[in-house]
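Justification of resources, computational component.

The compute hours requested in this renewal are based largely on the per-chain cost of generating structure records like the one below. Each record pairs the submitted sequence with a full structure-token output. That output is archived, and it is also reused by downstream analysis tasks.
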Amino acid sequence: MVRTAVTVGAAAERAFHVFTQRCDEWWPRSYRLGKTERVGVVLEPHTGGRWYERTADGEECDWGQVLAWDPPEHLTLSWQIGIGFVPESDPQRASRVDITFVETGPARTTVTVVHSEFERHGEGWESMREGVSNTVGGRVFFRPTRSSSPSHPAPSTGNGADGRSEGRAPVCQQVPITF
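The structure output for this chain reads:
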């Protein structure tokens, strides 16, 4: 299991919206399955909906499916990306991503992402867990766009293991997100 959490300066409803309907704005451009440039990420807003990318050549590459849709508190996705980060057509070989949105104060929400059931990917599943832990887990979701300052602190992020804050900003390249 890979677990990460980040606190963002937005109400749960807004955080849920940005996470689900604007994921193309914050998901790193280099993370794609298609052969050409990714031009969009679509998360269909209902249980049973598709989660996929669109590429410049019109291809649609499935990433998974919406297993639970409970705005603005909870979302569950299947991760139908196989070993080696290639599309996986068999839903029985998909891992699970649970995302919760818990308001912790006025215009503050803790977003927790738990990626589990990696063993469903089959032989070599450990490499998938390791790859997700090193790239996606905690360093992709809701990355801040400015350096920390007293008036604009960087969000706290979990360390991927137990989710406790380490008091440091994520290490990835930053992408602007407007709440």
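The CA atoms of residues 134 and 160 lie 9 Å apart. The chain has one domain: 2-135.
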